[in-house]
Amino acid sequence: MQFADAITPVSLVYVWVDKALPAQVSGAFGWTAYRSDDNVDWVPVPLAGPVTFGAFDNRFEIPIEGTRSRYLKVVTRPLALA
C-alpha cells in the first residue's frame, strides 16, 4: 500500500479474498508485514496478535504494531502442497 503521507497510523490490515475459507485452510497461511519510506528498503513490522479470518467477511485481519510509513506491505508464504 502506498499512503499519501507518512503520518497516518496503521495497526490493522485487511486482505480480502474471493470466497470463504475453512479454518484449516485460512490457518495455514503465515503472514509478515513490512514498512518502507522509499519503497526500496523494507523494515519488518511485528505482528501485534494472531491473524484471523473474518467471521462474516472474506478477509484476513492482520494486526500489526502501530506504525507510520509511506509504504506498507504484508506477505504470505506459499501453502504446502500437502
Write the H/E string, N to C: EHEEEEE
**Class from secondary-structure proportions:** mainly beta
Radius of gyration: 14 Å
Major sheet attributes:
3 strands, antiparallel
N/C terminus separation: 31 Å
Q: Give the integer mean of the pLDDT values.
A: 93
Low-confidence stretches: none
- Strand order across the largest sheet: 1-5-4
Helix % is under 10%
Notes on the structure:
This protein is mostly beta strands. Helices cover about 5% and strands about 40% of the residues. The chain has one helix at about 25; strands at about 10-15, 30-35, 45, 50-55, 60-65, 70-75. It is globular, with a radius of gyration of 14 Å.
Question: How do the helices and strands line up, and which of them pair or pack?
Answer:
Layout (H helix, E strand, L loop, with lengths): L9 E7 L6 H4 L4 E6 L6 E3 L6 E2 L5 E9 L3 E6 L6
Keywords:
single chain, 82 residues, mainly beta, 3-stranded antiparallel beta sheet, 1 helix, 6 strands, globular
In short:
The protein has one helix spanning 23-26; strands spanning 10-16, 31-36, 43-45, 52-53, 59-67, 71-76. By secondary structure, the protein is mostly beta strands. The longest helix has 4 residues, at 23-26.
